[in-house]
Every structure is written in C-alpha cells, then in structure tokens.
C-alpha cells in the first residue's frame, strides 16, 4: 500500500492481525523487504499486526532528495505512518538502525508507544569505533575492503553497494551457515547509495539520543546477540542503564540477528514481553 505521510509517499506492508506494531527498518539506503520476510512469519506467534514501511528516500517509497532523510524526519514519518493507518497505541520493534529510530520515537512520542523492543541497537555514534575495531579484527581482507568502502563513501553505485553488503554479511552472524539464506532473503532489496552516504556522513557522526532516553516511559526490552560486532553488548547495556525500567536480554549464540540465529528463543522472549 502507499501512504501519504508528511508530504511524501511511503510504501508500507501490513502482516498479521492483533495489536499494531511499528517495525522501522535498518540498513540506511536499503528497504523493509528483508524484515518483512524474516519477521513477518512471526506475526501470528506474537499476536501482532506488524507494520513495515520503506523510509522516505528508500526502496519503494518516493525517492525524495537525500537531504530530507534525516533521522529526525524519519522518526516523525513513523508517527505519520501510525496516524495514516488510524492506529491508536502501538508497540514498536526496532532492529539495528531501526532500533536507533525506535528509541527516538518512544522518547518523542510517549503517548502512542505502548511497548518498545530494540535489537542490536545503540544510543549514540559511539558504536562506530567499536564496530570498526571488531571488523578489523574479524574480517577477511575482502570483507575489510568492503566494510571500509561502505563507511568511507567510496562505494560508487547502487550495485556496488549491494555487493559490498553481501560481502560483509558473514560478520553479522555467529552461525555462518545462515549467511546464504540471509542474502537470498534480500535478493530483491532496493539499494540507494546516495541516501546511505547522507545518513553516514550527516546523521551517524553526530547521532546521540542518550539524553532523551529518560523520557521513555513505556516498558522496554533491550535485546542483543553476545557476538554482535556492529552494536556490541556494551551498547545494549548502556541503553538498559539509561532506561531504568527496561529489561535486558542477551542471546548467547547470536551475532547481530538473534531473530534469525535463535529464532525460537527470540520469539518466546519477545512474545512474553509483548503479552502475546
């Protein structure tokens, strides 16, 4: 479906029935398709109506100028999606960069937010040097070159962006046997390097919502894989410490994607938290 939100057109998909749950996607410059395929099948078990959308400038949404794709704007677009669909209170599930946006949304829109769950997230730009150090230590030479190209702005075009992400995807998994399926699930992902470069250069470098986290009033679950290289456990622990009423769950056999690597345990823990 297409939604008119804050002066732009956003592509959205709704999966399942039950209480509504907003699911902002991660991966600046990609889209929500991979999440629809990986999380959509959990909607029934979680008893949720899961709402996915491509952020403005991303994927199947209107390709607005990249300068419009600030994190502040994307957070307001999430609220716009809620309003456009006529939803009342919503749960929010943010994974990776979607978790950054989820934290900001819950802090700025406490009224509509019933419960918040974030996975593999960080509250500030301080995840960046941690990720680089982990990548340098863990990556093959090919993966390291791809990683650097994604962060230093040297990726030349959208197809190179796709190839670089596929090259580094093994870093995201503790169980490398899952990488091929993860790449296949994202075969039709729409990549836009221009918007990624904007977010990395103009948003990530100054991102810091730590001072806002005390404004989050809803029950909050912070989840992370023990082997997460890009938003490591200490980033989740910081979020947990800054939201006093939050719960912390560490998945011992997962990297950045416990929803894939420990799917049953992830579903049970999230379902218990959401009251499924």
Describe the protein in words:
- The chain has helices at residues 33-39, 43-46, 71-84, 97-108, 127-138, 141-152, 158-168, 179-185, 193-202, 233-242, 258-261, 263-274; strands at 2-5, 8-15, 19-24, 48-53, 90-95, 113-119, 220-225, 247-251.
- The longest helix is centred in the first third of the chain and has 14 residues, at 71-84.
- It has an eight-stranded mixed sheet with strand order 1-2-4-3-5-6-7-8, with helices on both faces.
- It starts with a strand and ends with a helix.
- It is built from twelve helices and eight strands.
- It is of the alpha/beta class and 276 residues long.
- Strand 7 (220-225), helix 10 (233-242) and strand 8 (247-251) form a beta-alpha-beta unit.
- The mean pLDDT is 96.
Topology:
Blueprint lengths: L1 E4 L2 E8 L3 E6 L8 H7 L3 H4 L1 E6 L17 H14 L5 E6 L1 H12 L4 E7 L7 H12 L2 H12 L5 H11 L10 H7 L7 H10 L17 E6 L7 H10 L4 E5 L6 H4 L1 H12 L2
Parallel strand pairs: 3-4, 3-5, 5-6, 6-7, 7-8
Antiparallel strand pairs: 1-2, 2-4
Helix pairs in contact: 3-4, 6-7
In a nutshell, what does this entry contain?
The chain has 276 residues and is an alpha/beta fold. The protein has helices spanning 33-39, 43-46, 71-84, 97-108, 127-138, 141-152, 158-168, 179-185, 193-202, 233-242, 258-261, 263-274, and strands spanning 2-5, 8-15, 19-24, 48-53, 90-95, 113-119, 220-225, 247-251. Helix 3 crosses helix 4 and helix 6 (141-152) packs across helix 7.
